[in-house]
Amino acid sequence: MIQINDYPYLYETHLHTSQSSACAQNCGYEMARAAHEAGYTGIIVTDHNWGGNNCIDSHLPWKEWLREFSKGYLDAKSYGDAHDFDVYFGYEAGYNGTEFLIYGVDIDWLIHHPEIKNAAIEKQFQLVHSAGGMVIHAHPFREDWYIPEIRLYPDSVDGVEGINATHSCHKSTSHNEKRFDEKAIAYANRHHLPMTAGSDIHSTNMFGGGVAFKRRLTSIQDYCHAVLSGEDYVLTNGDYVFDRYGNCYKGAYIK
Description:
By secondary structure, the chain is of the alpha/beta class. It is about 30% helix and about 25% strand.
């Protein structure tokens, strides 16, 4: 039986800001403050990249585009730095509706690797790995108008977002269909891929989803290592807690 108190360090791993994601409602500073006040230990800002629903001028030169793209993260980090709240950088890579959460690379790496912009999914995996990063397939079984088909790449990801709070938290009003998560959990277990959880949050109305640890993380690289090394952690959609294999238990971190 999982005891929530054994995993007191909760991280939101899938979060968008209005400075970079066209679908988000609040800036990075507001998102970080809301998550902190809700009880999170930290957040990973994962705005939509050049292949997704971003709001950055596509005509900007690569370096300038990335500087604009990073503003949501930097805004969130300004709050975190002032309030002992962890804020880490990531992004959500889009491929015609198929999306991946990228962790462990930074803006400087992106600036010096422009080839990532046109990389196919398999090449993305290689490039991110060469930088010591991690690729997680986001909400792999979500069905919606912007997703023309379900496409799976078990050999080109490090793990699967098994729990997406938008699919199953009672606070969610979009994409709310728990079978999307049920399919993701089964898929991850079938391919022996580690699972993560996040809220896919776009506003300051925190769902409470994420990954919770027994210890505080030290960096985004530490997060990657924890997931890939099989460290003991739990997943939550804001309403329920799950072990690393997707088994569900009662309890929630945020009321």
